[in-house]
Amino acid sequence: xxxxxxxxxxxxxxxxxxxxxxxxxxxxxxxxxxxxxxxxxxxxxxxxxxxxxxxxxxxxxxxxxxxxxxxxxxxxxxxxxxxxxxxxxxxxxxxxxxxxxxxxxxxxxxxxxxxxxxxxxxxxxxxxxxxxxxxxxxxxxxxxxxxxxxxxxxxxxxxxxxxxxxxxxxxxxxxxxxxxxxxxxxxxxxxxxxxxxxxxxxxxxxxxxxxxxxxxxx
Length: 218
Prior knowledge:
Layout: H1 9-16, E1 70-73, E2 79-82, E3 89-92, E4 101-104, E5 128-133, E6 139-144, E7 146-153, E8 156-161, E9 171-176, E10 181-187, E11 192-199, E12 211-216
Antiparallel strand pairs: 1-2, 3-4, 5-6, 5-12, 7-8, 8-11, 9-12, 10-11
């Protein structure tokens, strides 16, 4: 392919197909042509934020990280990553100028779950309860920490605990599921409690088909 060179620079550029680029100066000033640095990248500061269109940077162009990491900013304003936490931890702020971190959640009040009770916390929940039928062959309808019911005779029963109470000074409340019938209880020992039922009209002992008792204590 032959090119015709002339003494006129503009004509020569046109003949060579160089366009305006041949007259531009390299550098970072406005109108200059940026030059790649030694690593083949455009040097820092050559392009301003305004030079990049909004929403133009895709996830594919971001540096790879570790699953579970978060992006934050350090004290200088530079992007930084938040290290991965462990299961159950929560993201916790360190205040201004400090990157957040994943930390174990702080306690938030008394834990009264049955699986994790302290000596004080266990007093906040019912230690034992029972709903039973006291007629015929005595039967437990539902219960917690009650192993059995002993039938001592008409209207007289022992509620036997699966796990003994801490002492004999526990509290008990009872209820009878019958009109004009009543039930009462007293603390007998750490392992059993006496429950009695009677007819209100003459206070005679009476078997009931719906008797409830709940116990609080150590």
